[in-house]
């Protein structure tokens, strides 16, 4: 868990008042710090919960729990969840009401899906617009910095943080880095591992292909997903749920997003011009649409090793249909 986690939870409870009293005692429970209770029976209610690992409100199907809203980490909608557990103004998650005027002025709004302030043309209507800012700076100060949370903070210099090795998120370079000696973390931007650092701050990294393959959030029903492994230079299958990390629903989406401009054979068209009788040479190519290694009988047996053609099916599968092998938690 990341450093100063107590500071984070106390701040969340102080800002939002998101706590409840246990019916078995007088202990005040901060529901935002709890993992969600998925409930019993069939999960048919689409509600939201606050994921303290990523500081984000996430939708999930719940079953019956017998508790009232506010007594557990479960909320009726995203706005209610954000207002309870996050120190970000509700306007930052709304779409501007851009109607009723004839103006054409550049304004800025916060896109919480991409965690960016983006420009748009404002019609200057009479209705009060939410999530509408006159400048990029104003949008960043009002929405992006609060959304970044602890990921926005730098470190202090000329101080000692003891013998522990910490990782911190550098928002300028969008990377998790080892905290240098004689530097101290501020406001909780310190983690024990790179995995924890990217889990908390990875959603602010624009190039998702550079992120490690990992589940960024709580996952109720794992499914086959695909992530790009920067070490092996290939897309690999893993069990997870849709989230804001290096995570794609299909192998084609992964390959086309992360390796489309490379010389990887898996994204190239099949390297053959014709196929023939069974006594010709058996060769294999990767079909990116079907995620399958397909046999072809070719008049030539030569394989260059740089194109989408393989001597053996196993070689094709190893190159283009690999399964991710989880690494131990690393520094």
From TrEMBL:
InterPro entries: Kunitz_BPTI (IPR002223), Kunitz_BPTI_sf (IPR036880), TFPI/VKTCI-like (IPR050098)
Designated name of the protein: Putative kunitz
The entry's keywords: Disulfide bond, Protease inhibitor, Serine protease inhibitor, Signal
GO CC list: extracellular space
Signal peptide residue numbers: 1-17
Gene Ontology molecular-function annotations: serine-type endopeptidase inhibitor activity
Domain BPTI/Kunitz inhibitor: start-end pairs: 32-85, 92-143, 209-258, 266-320
Lineage top rank: taxon: Eukaryota
Membrane spanning stretches: none
Database matches in SUPFAM superfamilies: BPTI-like
């Amino acid at each position: 868990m990341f450093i100063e986690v107590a500071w984070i939870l106390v701040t969340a409870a102080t800002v939002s008042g998101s706590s409840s009293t246990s019916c078995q005692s007088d202990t005040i429970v901060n529901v935002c710090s709890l993992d969600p209770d998925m409930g019993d029976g069939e999960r048919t209610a689409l509600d939201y919960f606050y994921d303290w690992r990523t500081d984000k409100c996430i939708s999930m199907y719940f079953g019956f729990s017998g508790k009232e809203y506010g007594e557990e980490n479960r909320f009726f909608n995203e706005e209610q969840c954000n207002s309870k557990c996050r120190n970000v103004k509700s306007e930052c998650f709304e779409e501007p009401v851009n109607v009723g005027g004839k103006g054409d002025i550049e304004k800025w709004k916060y896109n919480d899906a991409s965690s960016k302030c983006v420009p748009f043309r404002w019609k200057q209507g009479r209705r009060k617009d939410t999530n509408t800012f006159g400048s990029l700076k104003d949008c960043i100060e009002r929405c992006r910095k609060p959304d970044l949370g602890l990921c926005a903070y730098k470190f202090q210099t000329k101080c000692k943080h003891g013998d522990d090795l910490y990782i911190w998120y550098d928002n300028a370079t969008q990377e998790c880095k080892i905290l240098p000696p004689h530097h101290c973390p501020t406001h909780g931007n310190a983690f024990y591992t790179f995995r924890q650092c990217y889990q908390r701050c990875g959603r602010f990294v624009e190039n998702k292909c550079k992120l490690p393959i990992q589940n960024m959030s709580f996952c109720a029903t794992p499914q086959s997903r695909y992530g790009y492994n920067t070490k092996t230079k290939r897309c690999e299958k893993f069990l997870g749920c849709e989230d804001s990390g290096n995570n794609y629903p299909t192998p084609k989406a992964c390959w086309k997003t992360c390796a489309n401009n490379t010389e990887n054979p898996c994204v190239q068209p099949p390297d053959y011009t014709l196929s023939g009788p069974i006594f010709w040479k058996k060769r294999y190519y990767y079909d990116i649409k079907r995620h399958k290694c397909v046999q072809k009988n070719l008049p030539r047996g030569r394989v260059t090793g740089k194109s989408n053609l393989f001597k053996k099916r196993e070689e094709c599968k190893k190159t283009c249909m690999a399964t991710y092998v989880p690494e131990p938690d690393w520094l």
